[in-house]
Amino acid sequence: MPVSKAINSKSSVSQNKFHGWLSLAGVMLAYGGICGTMTYAYGVFLPAMSETFHWSRSSLSGPYTLYMVIGGMLGPLAGFTIARFGARKNIIFCNVFAALGLVGMSQVSELWHVYLFFGFMGGIAIAFAEYLPVTTIINNWFVRRRSLAMGLLFTSGGAAGFLFPPLISWFISGAGWRLSWLFLAGIHLLLTVILAGALIRSTPEELGQLPDGSSQNSWIDKLTFLSSKPVYSTPVDWTLGEALRSPALWMLIALFSVILFVLTLLTTHQVAYLQDLNFSPMTAAYALGLMLGTSIIGRNVCGVLGMRFEGRYLAAVFLTLMLLGILSLMHAKGITFVYLYSVFMGIGFGGMIVLLPNMIGAYFGRANYPYISGWTMPVVTLAFAGSPVLAGFFYDTTGTYTIPFGIAAVLLFACVILALFTRPPVKTAE
Fold this sequence. Notes:
mainly alpha, Growth Hormone, Chain: A, 2 domains, globular
């Protein structure tokens, strides 16, 4: 009898261990793995593949555009499958599919192969296994600590963007681009399927637990200065229809669309713009890397501050930093303004990319998060996908980037005002 009690006691302790942090580690591996082996990897391969097949760089840009468009436009369907089958299954099965696509990239001989293996198969992966399922898992496991968990999650993407490109470049120089795609397929499978699949559980209810765990995590609250007064989190879950009728959701969609419109425009054209201003190619490239690097600061700062301050006030601050960044870029007559641009824009964007999914979860709840967030993705994708083309059109027409950068600055200023009015929605009785 004493032995039986001891066993039961040990089992009870094991069941009470909060699994949310292990699930967080799993989605960090999944998200960082996709960013590192796919999103930030393709551009590293582009010059070598262009040289091998004598394909133009513009023609090789098409598959990447398809990759991004499919990833956004299938958001509603991805939301349905996550709600129906669970985010963990989406992550595992669709990342196996992505790994097969990376293997296929090692065997391409025609341009349509790249469209198939990267554009289509990769696009399926990011639609069903990247942003939406990983943020759904965070939203399921965390409420008061949601912003901290989101900050850590998106930091993994920034770290992958910092680490993988030089590693891939080194491997291509030594083993060639075909073996490098195979190498990435193996890394992708290890990080996003084997390790992430072992750690992730879709909901705390699967293990008989609750979001945020118990008081055993109080040391985290002290470490991150968690406020004794909880930041707003809806007491009721909204349906998709209710959320779509709420002005607050469309305000959040507008904010998300603008920050991605601005970021896509800048990452596509800022290097060329700085070289037009007679900065060296190395300086221009370093400015882009510094912006992405400092975004890690914004992601973590937002993660901590989001547990103390309402999201709309933080959004106004981070959007103001992005605005200061683009104004610095527009007046970049010296290297100091280039660095100011990189730091302001990086921290501002890093904070916003964490804040927006956190606010959707806080405003509309856990139960229907994948449906609601999934339906925002096609709208956001359509809003930002054309920004590089728009900037290129104005440059070709006027010979400068003044108009597209000016448009970006005006949009950011409008979003600073809009953010302050994006109050938590009130659910009205039917």
